[in-house]
Amino acid sequence: MGRGRREGGGLELLRGAEAIGLAALMSGVEAYFGYPITPSSEIMEFMASEQGDPRFPRYRAFVQASSEVEAVNMLMGAGAAGHLAMTATSGPGLSLMAEGISYSVGTELPFLIVDVNRGGPGLGNVEPEQSDYAFVTKSLGHGGSRAIVLAPQGVEEAMEHVNRGFRLAFEYRIPVVILTDAIIVHMRETIRIPAIKEVRPRELEWTARGRMGGARHLLTSMYLEPHEMRSHKEALMTKWRRIETEVRSFECIMCDDADTLLIAYGVAARKARGAVADLRKHGIRLGLFRPVILNPFPWEELESAAEGREVVVVEMSEGQLHEDVSARLGPLVKSVAVPGGEIVDVEEALA
């Protein structure tokens, strides 16, 4: 890096892509497998530049795969062997990875994916959008597969989420997605470097280590007999219920006296936070509920915060989060939805 290894607590001006990569290195990432796609390529570029750096001895493998399909299969192999591995991609690339992610959910393989959301569907554009929400939270792959989804609102929190993502992936043996966008990855912020500790998974008895020795383990998502498939899927469902109980995270900002509650995540939450502060100066009592983790979603906490208040969902998509919130809280929930890659102007929308 040419700047030495950062220690937690210091102030630095960092670009989001560099911060995400640095957090992975500080966490002890061992392998990066990916295929370049705008607007995520800067993360891959940074990770390529750090290959072989003696300051990060655990980081031993960087591979530019021939496609996202190949990259996700490399992630599966690393996860099966108990190694910390990650990739970064964007919507079209994530779609190509979906089959492998489903296999990994079924096989219970841990790894980290940074999704840098761009405009869609199709090729769309490379501007920031939040239109991958339904994809990553509802069924990231076939067969009802689900992953844990973290949603940082800025550069410093993105660093924290990388470390947290690796820990969650190995604790629950599940793929973890960090849902970002072009703003978070490309902007520069002066941040306090989080105190990140290396992730060293302890319970790896299940891994397939090959010639490294130990017992032979068969890792599979295939169960041809219906009763075996049912038993396996019930075990996955039980694990997900435990994740729903243990992993939820949110912020409730100025909610106590709010007449209107805004609901937003990621960059939209940053804009909403500013609107809350500005409009309160004019006597308009707004609050903000921000899910820090999108999947599992903190529904019970949202229901409590929204009780007796007007509710407005703010998002940079066609209204995917609003659809979920309306299904939970009722049809009176309002929507400020701005798709296409434009930055939502909350104050203007509420005027």
TrEMBL record:
Its EC number is 1.2.7.3. Pfam families: PFOR_II, POR_N. Residues 258-348 form the Pyruvate:ferredoxin oxidoreductase core domain. It comes from the Archaea. Residues 23-245 form the Pyruvate flavodoxin/ferredoxin oxidoreductase pyrimidine binding domain. GO terms for biological process: organic acid metabolic process; sulfur compound biosynthetic process. The keyword Methyltransferase does not apply. The keyword Ribonucleoprotein does not apply. GO terms for molecular function: 2-oxoglutarate synthase activity. Keywords: Oxidoreductase. This is 2-oxoglutarate oxidoreductase, alpha subunit. The lineage of its organism: Archaea, Nitrososphaerota, Conexivisphaeria, Conexivisphaerales, Conexivisphaeraceae.
